[in-house]
Specification:
The complex is a heterodimer of chains A (144) and B (414). Chain A has 144 residues and is α+β, with helices and mostly antiparallel strands. Chain A contains 6 helices and 4 strands. In chain A, α2 (10-17) crosses α3 (67-80) and α3 crosses α6 (106-127). The radius of gyration of chain A is 14 Å and the shape is globular. Chain B has 2 domains: 11-36 and 304-413, Aspartate Aminotransferase, domain 1; 48-301, Aspartate Aminotransferase, domain 2. Chain B has helices at residues 11-14, 43-55, 66-85, 100-115, 130-143, 163-167, 190-199, 219-222, 247-252, 287-303, 305-323, 352-360, 374-380, 396-413, and strands at residues 24-25, 28-29, 31-32, 94-97, 120-125, 146-150, 171-178, 203-207, 226-230, 241-245, 263-266, 271-273, 330-331, 342-346, 364-365, 367-369, 385-389. In chain B, the strands form 5 sheets. Chain B has a 7-stranded mixed β-sheet, sandwiched between helices. A 4-stranded antiparallel β-sheet of chain B has the order 13-14-17-16, covered by helices on one side. In chain B, α2 (43-55) packs antiparallel against α10 (287-303) and α12 packs across α14. The chains are: A alpha+beta (144), B alpha/beta (414). Chain A binds chain B through residues 3-4, 7-8, 13, 16, 37-42, 64-68, 70, 108, 111, and chain B through 26, 351-354, 357-358, 361, 368-370, 374, 377, 382-384, 412-413.
Chain lengths: 144, 414
């Protein structure tokens, strides 16, 4: 497989060109904005909880950015659907990376993690729980 | 009939001076199209630094032994070259800094904190790099002065008609602007801006980080009050830059960094400052880097700044012409004759980061991002752009490869 096909796998290009859960959610129960100032990726994540106020009923995202950041966020919305907020708030990044399934340089890793990190910030903000180590101090997230 | 003979440079020949081009990237020859972020280094500079370390290295202005004298002579000899490079009236007005950024911070802190206050206005432009934008925004905030920006038009050129409105908003005390925009390559009308600043009774600070590599600088002709630039964009090493300032202003200013070398006499209750330029050079400086900076000045002078400027205009014109063939491409900035060798562009539907990644696999290095100009990106309505930038070693064949690569990107992601 050549370099292009390794990084821009068909599934990545599919999510990039047809992002799932793309759009703005009015009256979201949780939301946060994230940006990667290095390359100008921006993402806002919106979450609606189910009746138990914990199960993630719906996730949407808006923003713009490179294929990796947008596809990873799109894949994330599918992954977390129906999961408990408390599980997602501590979701290991490797779970998402396995799903993305492509080799990433440290710089592109930031693109791939933008959606997940922003989602975690949104959930912690909504639940009033302290942000995990590494995210403390961020309200609206800036990864740099 | 007089025949105009423009000095020409031979980029193919000059490339042999740069060891970096001897390698391949991903199996392809390196096409380094990111010289605006930092330039590559010729053997002449590397050799000068190595030779200095091997034969003359010691600390400067300290010891009485031979090595220290040699080191001081190398360091001060380079200062003379760098001062002459911008036609400074005196070497004493040329202060070594770590970078152009530090040079601007020096002025913002050491001049700004004492000279700005409520009712005063600090002016920069929408084209400015964060290194000129943020220090003045911050120091204005600290002192209660207001902070205003000169807008740009859709060509990426300053709207000078807006100056009168800025003048009516308070006492304009400082105008700080870049001579060449790092993001778009625009060459700004600094003489006009300086004349206007002086009419307002303001000082003029020129960020020449992106201009110094590309065109001949003359602080006396520009008539500015401060000029900041750095070595790494002009074939010299990173870690050293320079601030030129008018002596009468520098004399009056408070110090910036405090410590060794910048002092005259230290008592328990009081310290007095060293003379210029040492008053602003606390601590052990980047000694070998300063020597490399001087060697870079020699290297550029040998080629000729006029020839470099001409070469870049030609490359910019060639690139804009070739790239315009790409369907949907949006190229930012003014016409080639009013820009340095910098071409920023956007291809709808393709994020610059993806473009840069795919181009890298063909050995082509371009910059993707906001180029440290977030307000400008917002003005252009983009999150980021892809930027190709050229220098004295850039050849048209590399631009052909870029265009070919962009077609490939479009096929893959478009």
């Amino acid at each position: 497989m050549n370099e292009f096909d390794q990084l821009y796998r068909e599934v990545i290009l599919d999510h990039y060109k047809n992002p799932r859960g793309h759009g703005v959610m009015e009256d979201a129960d949780a939301d946060a904005e994230g940006m990667n100032p290095l390359c100008g990726d921006e993402v806002t994540i919106y979450v609606r909880f189910g009746e138990d106020s914990d199960t993630i009923d719906e996730v949407k995202f808006s923003g713009r950015g490179c294929a990796i950041s947008q596809a990873a966020t799109s894949m994330l919305t599918e992954m977390v659907q129906g999961k408990k907020a408390s599980e997602v708030a501590v979701l290991d990044k490797d779970e998402l990376l396995d799903e993305i399934g492509i080799p990433l340089t440290p710089i592109r890793l930031k693109c791939a993690m933008l959606g997940l990190t922003t989602l975690k910030v949104a959930l912690h903000k909504a639940k009033g729980t302290p942000l995990p180590q590494g995210l403390a101090g961020y309200d609206d997230l800036e990864l740099s | 009939m007089a025949i105009e003979t423009r000095p020409k440079l031979d980029a193919h020949k000059l490339r042999a001076d740069f060891p970096i081009f001897e390698q391949q990237i991903h199996g392809k020859p390196l096409a380094y199209l990111d010289s605006a972020v930092t330039s590559q280094k010729p053997r002449q500079v590397l050799d000068a630094m190595r030779d200095f370390y091997e034969t003359s290295y010691g600390n400067v202005h300290r010891g009485v032994y031979t090595l220290s004298e040699r080191a001081t002579a190398g360091f001060e000899g380079a200062r003379a070259k760098v001062a002459a490079f911008v036609n400074a009236p005196s070497e004493r007005e040329l202060i070594y800094t770590r970078s152009a950024t530090e040079a601007i911070n020096l002025v913002a802190y050491a001049w700004g904190l004492d000279n700005l206050g409520p009712g005063d206005v600090a002016v920069v432009s929408e084209l400015d790099h964060h290194s000129n934008f943020v220090p003045w925004q911050y120091i204005a905030g600290r002192t209660g002065a207001s902070f205003r920006t000169i807008p740009i038009d859709d060509n990426g050129e300053l709207v000078l008609d807006s100056l009168d409105e800025l003048a009516s908003s308070g006492r304009v005390k400082v105008v700080a602007n870049n001579l060449v925009s790092n993001a778009l390559g625009t060459i700004n009308p600094i003489e006009q801006l300086t004349a206007w600043a002086h009419e307002q009774g303001a000082i003029m600070v020129v960020d020449a980080a992106q201009a110094a590599p590309h065109l001949a600088l003359d602080v006396q002709a520009l008539d500015c009050d401060f000029l900041a630039f750095s070595s790494h964009k002009m074939c010299g090493p990173s870690g050293v830059g320079a601030l030129w300032g008018r002596r009468e202003l520098l004399e009056k200013m408070s110090p910036f960094n405090l410590g060794g070398q910048m002092i005259h006499k230290v008592d328990l209750d009081k310290t007095t400052w060293n003379e210029l330029p040492y008053k602003f050079e606390a601590g052990t400086p980047a000694i070998a880097e300063a020597v490399g900076f001087g060697a870079a000045v020699d290297y550029l002078n040998e080629i000729g700044l006029d020839a470099i400027e001409q070469h870049e205009h030609e490359l910019a014109a060639y690139a804009i012409d070739k790239m315009s063939e790409i369907d949907g491409i949006r190229i930012f900035g003014p016409p080639p004759d009013r820009r340095a060798g910098i071409v920023s562009f956007d291809i709808p539907g393709i994020h610059p980061h993806d473009a840069a990644q795919i181009l890298d696999w063909d050995g082509i290095a371009v910059r993707a991002g906001h180029h440290c100009t977030q307000p400008l990106m917002r003005r252009l309505g983009v999150a980021a752009t892809t930027r190709a930038s050229f220098y004295l070693y850039t050849i048209p064949e590399e631009i052909d490869r870029l265009v070919e690569g962009l077609h490939k990107v479009k096929r893959a992601l478009g």
